[in-house]
Write a structure and sequence with these properties.
- The protein is α/β, with parallel strands linked by helices.
- The protein has a domain at 37-175 and 210-220: 3-Layer(aba) Sandwich (Rossmann fold).
- It has seven helices and seven strands; from the N terminus they run H-E-H-E-E-E-H-E-H-H-E-H-H-E.
- It has a seven-stranded mixed sheet, with helices on both faces.
- The mean pLDDT is 97.
Amino acid sequence: MKDKINFGDLRRVTPISRAFGFERGRPVDRYYIESFLAENAAEIAGRVLEVGDDQYTQEFGGSRVTQADIIDLKADNPKATLIADLTQADHLGGNLFDCFIFTQTLQFLYDVRAAIGTAYRILKPGGVLLASFPVISQICRYDMDRWGDYWRFTNASVLRLLSEQFPQEQIQVRAHGNILTAICIMHGLAAEELTSEELDYHDPDYQIVITARAVKPVEAG
């Protein structure tokens, strides 16, 4: 018989928190997403598009941003400058944005290929997509009950999806996470409850979030 496991606080059938970690600090997946955006902060410049609000545009772009746009499906978002469904956005012009910050959104869009096609089309030639995708995460009940929470991804699926629009040599995909961070994210624990060594250990078999940088070729214009 194997040594008995001491489950401690984890021996429960309900999560410690359903608030994704927000009520305890910074969600674990945000640690990876924000580190990724910090690494690519120089790309957040010129005319920048973000989904829902412009928090990351302002935090990581700052004075490099000449115009901050916010896209939302909901017309009742007072911050939104563009109302559009990224899967049906033919009314949006092409070659508009220098950077598109597209974090933790694709899972709520059923037609992922159409959404990525729109992201490619609305970027200017040389424009950069900075995106993140969940691998291990609880269902977002708010979104599920309104428009759907459809998908989870891996580094392989993200690379393949992006490669259908962007040249593969212009795509960088990275997986983040390990078994401990996977357990923490499912229980709604916060990044502050882990050490940097625990957060920065990456096990490719226990991915919790994928980050991707993709560049539209200059000659695409």
